[in-house]
Write a structure and sequence with these properties.
four-stranded antiparallel sheet, 38 strands, Neuraminidase, mainly beta, disordered C terminus, 0% helix, single chain
């Protein structure tokens, strides 16, 4: 944020609380992991944060098949620079399985125990490429499984699209690979490295989970604007649409051990939410309290318990005047996107921000907003095209001599740099190119692009 000479600042009042209305939930709360037992409505911490992790996040846990170990990620730079750790539920012993790699941005994430609990596979963007890796549970050298980079993306490594699943016998791993427009499912033999493409379908086919019967893989197909859950019989290659109670699909689906249910995460008005669906009839229930984000669902071996991490990271946007010491709420329930999310106009009369607002249907409205300091009015001035990406600077730029904003606008499937005045009445398209653009920033002569 800029323009602090006026003594004003804008910040988010974040609220975090452990709640558990149903089942047992595993929470990653500002770096803490704990469980909440429904019967007593009490919560307690099972993985306390180490002193050296006081600014780190613990995220994306996975429970071993025997229930004795939990694998989790420790991120040391926002959600970046993650390493893989294990926690022994009985003894409290921790083992750091991977070391931070200077060539990685996101690091080592999405750990998954092998069925025999002897190894953990994970995804990493070491050396700037996305690959599957494996490491012994007791510690040792990590080994790269894939030979070619998977899920290359413009402006990103595709790490979070690379969710994978072990076969029940532990011999193979299924994952998706492709581009932003086309991806398919592949199996990889862990020992021999043999790679087999198992789908050849249009659209993006991803987020696979291998069922306990050894034959049925659950995955998401997205074709244009239509997303749905489907199953694939790995032996016959027959695919079937899965009945779900609402339109669309989510991500990171996982079968229950008896394959009667599956859980998944889906973007909603309050961010990611966790759902459970009956495979037999498609009946779907939302897990966790309203107004709280939750994601990364996983089952314990009994099939009686769904675990996920959840937190509430939203609150009012507040304008604080440093001269008078007064504070005034501007927006309720605001969730900031990006490392930097707001910018002041050069004259200090306005501040602007991008916001992704989700309806209960999951439909997103991505737009540029301007707030007038004099009357505290919030105005939606233009639609924008930014990603829900907390790793980037998402603040709009200002053209210092013209009183206009610069932001990313959607022109068809492409993003272009546009300028607009604070009323939103006059948009000017400044670029014409097919490249993905991000991280605008202000400059003396106008604007810059990262």
């Amino acid at each position: 944020m800029s323009k602090l000479q006026k003594g004003r600042s804008v910040y988010i009042s974040a609220i975090a609380k452990l709640l558990c209305p149903i089942g047992v939930s595993l929470f990653g709360l500002f770096g803490l992991v704990g469980v909440c037992i429904a019967q007593s409505k009490q919560s307690y911490e099972i993985i306390n944060r180490l002193p050296q992790h006081h600014e780190s996040r613990y995220h994306h846990p996975h429970v071993a098949p025997d229930g004795d170990l939990i694998a989790y990620c420790v991120a040391n730079d926002g959600w970046n620079k993650s390493t893989i750790w294990t926690f022994d539920v009985q003894t409290g012993r921790r083992i750091k399985l991977t070391e931070s790699d200077s060539t990685a941005t996101i690091g080592d994430v999405l750990p998954r125990f092998s069925p025999d609990t002897k190894h953990i596979a994970f995804v990493s963007d070491r050396n700037g490429e996305c690959h599957l890796w494996i490491v012994p549970v007791k510690g040792g050298r990590a080994r790269q499984l894939t030979q070619q980079s998977i899920n290359p993306r413009q402006g990103g490594s595709g790490v979070w699209d690379s969710r994978f699943s072990w076969s029940p016998d532990g011999r193979r791993i299924v994952f998706s690979h492709g581009s932003n427009e086309l991806s398919n499912l592949y199996t990889l033999d862990v020992e021999s490295g043999e790679l087999v493409q198992v789908t050849n379908l249009p659209g993006r086919n991803r987020f696979p989970d291998w069922g306990s019967d050894g034959q049925t893989i659950l995955y998401v197909r997205q074709l244009k604007n239509i997303a749905e859950y489907r199953t694939l019989n790995i032996e016959t290659r027959v695919e079937t649409k899965v009945q779900v109670e609402f339109d669309g699909a989510g991500s990171y689906a996982e079968w229950s051990p008896n394959m009667k249910w599956f859980v998944f995460q889906r973007m909603t008005a309050s961010g990611f939410s966790t759902y459970i669906t009956s495979y037999e009839n498609g009946k779907t229930y939302r897990l966790g309290p309203q107004g709280y984000m939750s994601w990364g669902p996983t089952w314990d071996n009994s099939g009686d318990t769904v675990m996920f991490h959840s937190m509430r990271f939203s609150g009012p946007m507040i304008l604080h005047d440093g001269e008078s010491g007064t504070s005034e709420p501007i927006l309720k329930g605001f969730y900031p996107i990006g490392r930097k999310w707001a910018s002041w106009s050069p004259d200090g009369r306005y501040f602007a921000f991008n916001r992704i607002a989700y309806a209960e249907s999951g439909r997103a409205d991505t737009a540029l907003y301007v707030v007038s300091v004099s009357d505290k009015q919030v105005r939606r001035v233009d639609s924008t095209k930014i990603r829900d990406d907390n790793f980037k600077s998402q603040s709009p730029g200002w053209m210092s001599t013209h009183g206009r904003l610069v932001s990313l606008c959607g022109i068809g499937e492409d993003s272009e740099i546009c300028s607009v005045d604070t009323s939103g009445s006059h948009r000017v398209i400044l670029t014409e190119s097919k490249f993905e653009k991000s991280e605008l920033r202000g400059a003396e002569c106008g604007f810059g692009r990262g």
